[in-house]
Amino acid sequence: MKILAPVHTCSIVLVLPSLLAVLQTTTAQKNGISIYSLTVDSKVSSRFAHTVITSRVVNRAETMEEATFQMELPKKAFITNFSMIIDGVTYPGNIKEKAAAQKEYSAAVSRGKSAGLVKATGRKTEQFQVSVSVAPTAKVTFQLVYEELLRRHLGAYEILLKVRPQQLVKHLQVDVHIFEPQGISFLETESTFMTKELAEALTTSQNKTKAHIQFKPTLSQQQKSPDQQDTILDGSFIIRYDVNRTHSGGSIQIENGYFVHYFAPEGLPTMPKNVVFVIDKSGSMSGRKIQQTREALIQILSDLNSKDQFNLIVFSGEATQWKPSLVPASAENIKEAKSYAAGIQAQGGTNINDAMLMSVNLLESSNKAELLPAGSVSIIILLTDGDPTVGVTNPTSIQKNVKDAIDGQYSLFCLGFGFDVSYAFLEKMALDNGGLARRIYEDSDSSLQLQDFYQEVANPLLSSVAFEYPSNIVEAVTRDNFRLLFRGSEMVVAGKLRDQASDVLSAKVKGKMHMQNITFQVESSIAQQEEEFQSLKYIFHNFMERLWAHLTIKQHLERIVSASDAESQDLKTRALNLSLKYNFVTPLTSMVVTKPEDQEQSQVAEKPVEDNNRQRNVHSGGSSNVDPSHTPRRGISRSGISSLPPDFGSRYAAAPPRFGQPGPPHDRDIFHTSHAIPQPTWEGLRGLPFLTPVHSDSSRVVLLSKEIQTKETTLTNRSQAPFQAPSVMLPMPEPTVDQMCVDIKRSQGPMNLISDADQGLQVTGQYEMEKAGFSWIKVTFEDLQLQVHASPERVVVTRNRRSSGYNWKETLFLDLPGLKITMDKTGLLLLKGPAKVTIGLLSWDDPRKGLLLLLHDTDNFSSHVSGTLGQFYQDPLWGPPEAEDKSKRALRVQGTDYSATRERKLDYQEGPPGKESSCWLVEL
Ligand SMILES: *[C@@H]1O[C@H](CO)[C@@H](O)[C@H](O)[C@H]1NC(C)=O
Ligand SMILES: *[C@@H]1O[C@H](CO)[C@@H](O)[C@H](O)[C@H]1NC(C)=O
Ligand SMILES: *[C@@H]1O[C@H](CO)[C@@H](O)[C@H](O)[C@H]1NC(C)=O
Ligand SMILES: *[C@@H]1O[C@H](CO)[C@@H](O)[C@H](O)[C@H]1NC(C)=O
Ligand SMILES: *[C@@H]1O[C@H](CO)[C@@H](O)[C@H](O)[C@H]1NC(C)=O
Ligand SMILES: *[C@@H]1O[C@H](CO)[C@@H](O)[C@H](O)[C@H]1NC(C)=O
Ligand SMILES: *[C@@H]1O[C@H](CO)[C@@H](O)[C@H](O)[C@H]1NC(C)=O
């Protein structure tokens, strides 16, 4: 076994539905290899992404050194080229049939050379790595090219770049160009390593159909700190977008004799569904897995549509159904099902066969009794984490039993939880029955992954969808019949146009909606389309043809899973022919990489296949990362080569983003200076006469920890702070009432904290005395269809039903249309949008303690703001300090009288450790 010192690594990951690029480089200091240029150039034309990564290194040492080029690419992408240029000589990778390639390199293997160059590394990624010896002063250029068709997932295409260079790179540049003829409806970026300085290196420009995202950090921007040569770049960079759609037959795009047809009509009503959840509760599920399953199930049950019918089956050695038949998703039934789900305990064996047959019987008996609504869709969702151990255990027999029972009537979706499960078994069973399989990775976000999957299938729009093209114009179309169209997804058909010229390509799309059949018709002018694409200078040649080939190969490979032997052989031959013709590294081909040192010594890059090899190490990340795009930081290949760089996990030194202008501490003493308050720089205070309704002009709400006894205490560690029930502080723009604070004196149920319809803003939360803060806070921006749900453990951001989870203190920089979400290492989460109140949420070091709520830019509140806290921004009427006790005064809000007393509190609006400040306290 040889341990390679990672010298220079550069990774790109392109994930379906995302495009993820990882740039990795190790420090030059380790040996003489220095990267002087590293570029990623990704061109997305009509969802087809073509990415080129180029890395240029030089050996500055006086001895021969080994340079390693390492990158991650999405599982769903195909490598199409790799080359090394050494001393002006190009060493291209050669893509060959797998068997031929293996023969070629078996000699190398027999001499003890390492095996594959590509291996699975993350949830969505695989890693490509090549090492080569470099002579002193010599330069090497590595170039990798790969292509992927981005898939629409919950209403968005995702391009994800992982940026992890491990040395400063003089020329580091990432360019993503997007061209979407349908028009880009939204574009957002997210990154986990962005600091204020780095954010300046990121530019996004966009017009109707095009977008260009560029990230080009200078050497000093890459530096962790001015005196450190380490790079701060280490994390994910994600771009999400969607295109405009109408209630139509979709969009047909044509280039160079090939076309692609995208179909995802807007505005179709959801079909009612009959869904049976089949949940594995065998012993192996015990612990966190079953807990996360319960959590997800409870959430999923809440998300059922009112017209749906459902039932639950739990199984271990035997299967049990919750109700004797399907029941409507009424509020009572859902409530009962949730408490049933909450009580699921894991133990025993795994009898998949009985559970599956029971689920089919449930649907069958409802069907026979005519209890399935006309025009409804019936689906079975199986979740299991292991192989069958009880009852029928032969996978082939189970597959046959299930297929015979379902008999094409229902769709089966299989979720494989973790790596003890035979994914191939589940995948075949799902594909045999018109559904699909997913792996659920064991991690802190497993519950979100389950919910995410459910969201994908939650809203069936059409069934039996068939695409029709005139056969005199079109030949060689990809799959044109699909069982179900779900909201948020997209159907894609590509094809080749016949030679004889025609002006117009027309198509029909037929499908069944709830209660009616529907036919869409769409036409596209061939000449006009050709022109549109040809005018794009950055389009790579024949991209549409490559898109067609890519999709055809993908579909052939998928069909092989459930095809008969003869069919399978035919599909393989056809997929292989296309893979070779278009130079794709697919599961049927390999790329032979020859190095200069020894012409005999070639290595082979092969596409890893989705398990059956029980790649236990693949998910070893076990990190608390919950971003599904995060790949584990370390991976051990099956050949035993430790290939990834040391852990750079704790290397962020982000300058935490802050509220607007840092202001002076608010430690003025109201007793002595009530009429001579210096104007705080961050607040435009205005003089307002007594009992004049004041529109809260620039006030802020600050949640404080209560009563700092000693002024001198510096709170460097929030866990050590004297911790009592904190107050909510509401600074008022009146000269005599600079800030007020609110003490919540009892735990109560969920509270409507702030509600401002004009802002589209709603903040709710639950306050817990024993947690001295909020046990959860939910912030909803209705106009953005965005919701942030924060608990002391984590933050979940949901947009258009797509959820991402983040742990506190992860750095995050999420730039959505109309809102920026940032989080820094101190655990301060900010939601800030133009003309919006900025909401801050602050977590403590100790997750047992509740969250703090902060508000900024509160002059953006409308005059209709309401809620427990919001009401104080709606025309508060302050009385003067009482004559006998100037530390008391009256307050009237919305007809309710309060008595306020002057208190000193700790102010967290600039984040921890907080500053001492005075306020008028009201108890609620
Ligand atoms: C692969 O890239 C090398 C270097 O750019 C180039 O010479 C070669 O023609 C490419 N191969 C294919 C099949 O595109
Ligand atoms: C796409 O939608 C956006 C937002 O709704 C709109 O501004 C834009 O004009 C649309 N573009 C096209 C090409 O229709
Ligand atoms: C927007 O369009 C103009 C011309 O139509 C083009 O020059 C510019 O590069 C486009 N911007 C982007 C980001 O593509
Ligand atoms: C839809 O079309 C099918 C034939 O494709 C037919 O059997 C069915 O009755 C039609 N349904 C409605 C509601 O028209
Ligand atoms: C695949 O290519 C081989 C030769 O390259 C040819 O003989 C064969 O007919 C092709 N098969 C198909 C299905 O196109
Ligand atoms: C803060 O204090 C707690 C309790 O004293 C301690 O466990 C923790 O490690 C401290 N955290 C830091 C960052 O110093
Ligand atoms: C929202 O707040 C910002 C910052 O205080 C301010 O610049 C902006 O004018 C406000 N917008 C509105 C609509 O009040």
Note down, in words, how this protein is organized.
The structure is a single chain. This protein has 924 residues and is an alpha+beta fold. The chain folds into 5 domains: 2-244 and 585-595, Immunoglobulin-like; 253-268 and 462-546, Sandwich (Immunoglobulin-like); 273-458, Rossmann fold, CATH 3.40.50.410; 631-720, no CATH class; 728-923, no CATH class. It has a 16-stranded mixed beta sheet with strand order 1-11-16-13-43-44-45-46-47-34-35-36-51-50-49-48, with no helix packed on it. An 8-stranded mixed beta sheet has the order 6-5-10-3-2-12-15-14. Strands 19, 20, 21, 22, 23, 24 and 25 form a 7-stranded mixed beta sheet that branches. Helix 4 (288-302) packs antiparallel against helix 5 and helix 6 (352-368) runs parallel beside helix 7 (395-406). Residues 1-29 and 612-725 have low confidence and may be disordered. The structure holds 2-acetamido-2-deoxy-beta-D-glucopyranose (7 copies). One 2-acetamido-2-deoxy-beta-D-glucopyranose is lined by residues 835, 857, 859-860. Residues 573-574, 577 line the site of one 2-acetamido-2-deoxy-beta-D-glucopyranose. Belongs to the ITIH family.
Count of discrete domains: 5
CATH topology value of the largest domain: Immunoglobulin-like
The neighbouring-strand order within the major sheet is 1-11-16-13-43-44-45-46-47-34-35-36-51-50-49-48
Per CATH, the architecture of the largest domain is Sandwich
> Roughly how many Å apart are the termini?
67 Å
Bound molecules: 2-acetamido-2-deoxy-beta-D-glucopyranose
Approximately how much beta-strand content do the residues carry?
35-45%
| Structural class by secondary-structure content | alpha+beta
- Would you report the number of β strands? 51
GO cellular component, one term: extracellular region
Pfam families: ITI_HC_C, VIT, VWA
Signal peptide: 1-28
GO molecular function: serine-type endopeptidase inhibitor activity
